[in-house]
Amino acid sequence: MSDPSAIEHQVAARLDRLNAREAILDVRGLVKTVPHGTSERTILNNVHLKVRRREFLCVVGPSGCGKSTLIRTIAGLEEAQGGDILVDGKPVHGPGPDRAMVFQGYTLFPWLTVLGNVMFGLQMANKPKDEAAREARQWLDLVGLEPYADAYPHHLSGGMKQRVAIARALAIQPRILLMDEPFSALDARTRARMQAYLIDIWRKIDVTIVFITHDLDEALLLADRVLVLKTNPGEVVELMDVPALPGARDLDSPALKAALIRLEGFIHAQEQAQAAEDEPVTPIVRLAPIKDGID
Amino acid sequence: MLGVLSFILPLTLWSAISYAPFLWHPLVEITDPGDVSYFSAGMRAPADAFAEEVEAMTAAGQAPPRGVPANPVYLPAPHEVAIALWHAATPAADAREEFRLSSSLWHSIQIIFWAFLISSAVGVPLGILCGSFSAVGRLTEPFIEFFRYLPAPAFGALAVAVLGIYDAPKIAIVVIGTFFQQVLIIATTTRRVEYALLEAAQTLGARNLKLVRRVVVPAILPDLYNDQRILLGWAWTYLIVAELVGTSSGITFFITQQARYQHFENVYAAILVLGIVGFGSDLLLAWLGRWLFPWKRTSA
Q: Taxonomically, which superkingdom (chain A) (predicted)?
């Protein structure tokens, strides 16, 4: 439809504008270790990351690369052993409403209605009840669940629950929305719909998103930039610009196909390196030679 | 269906032993003593002694005694217990207060109510705090753990010396028996709260006591409710011991009195009523729990 080079131009211009904005999240030399027997195991090693205002960043990497740990540490749910995490220039100590989080398991409060769940954060901020309810209804309207305001979470489908969780997180107007594999428990069709919803919401409001996924297609559909982590210890391998504009993206376009191959290359190379590092295992199952077959 | 059958089976067994004369019936209830000097109408004699006397009297040409096979006096038939229950439900107007089953039971229920209320008023909040804040738990739980092993009835004499002989020491013993278990059980339930919910609440700005009040308490409420149901059952078992302390009272006094007069049908009636009240209140609470916490499947 439109000229590929023109799109390339638009993308570059957009990323320039993005980079000109102030960094909302600034991760400096983050180190995270966990006790491992008598020694310590390094989960994240010297991670640097700047996320600009209204940016959509996806974090990918092989399983065990510490992407979940990274986002949980940013959320303040885990303590870092070194480095700094700055939000709007202020260091992070513990969880706070400037960084809302959406989890893979929906973590809705089962004793509260949908409306009550969305009101929760507002009430924690000591907003009067009627004001909180009015605001919460607007957020539910944004995710298209206003008619379900009085339903309880156990009556909703997985996709609807996750939309409530998103509305609940957005209602407190966080600077950053942290999402830890939010759609991986959903079926493929619902996931596609949720991705479209999320992009739609993100374009409407002033929020910065850090999104963890193990699905490279998902990262390319959603993100402005993709951060690739490697395993053992978790370190930044690459921060890749996604060569497409936000909105409905076509994964079959040449630019995104090329991007996918690059991403796969990073992850694949690591998996091979990992396999080479692993000790050869003596086989327990002895395979019979073909010539000794029983037929 | 099987649930109903589980009640019918023992009832059938009881009826069979009571009404089928060839089952057990080790005694003979004398209807006519004949010429045996130490027999009297209504007394129960061992079957072999009765047979000997019949033989001896027949041989001596005197009138043999007559009687019907009977069970010992401590095993009344179902209909006798049913009649006793009926009398308990419709007491004669002139019956003395403490000899009535209904007023004895009411007295016992009051003891349980106050004891459980006092125990819960302190035990539930303390248990939740122990489970929520590890410092509170470490400060109080070792002592509570120790105290839990001191049998509540052992405090009987002490309770009477301090609190007098009426209801206060009885309430105190049920409280001692319930409270320490209650704190530990509720602390454990509190620790089992889904961690992900706490994390979600923290990222939404909930902290400390607000986190406890708005997340921990509602999250554990269905389990807490079930714990309370179980603890109420324990309180009932302490009741019987507690009522023997000081002046005996309530349902226990009724049972011991009736046993002394060999009115075993009343004893069984009282025990049955205890079971019915306990089991019935538990069923009621379970049903209420399902209605109160529709998001949680409470196990009955």
A: Bacteria
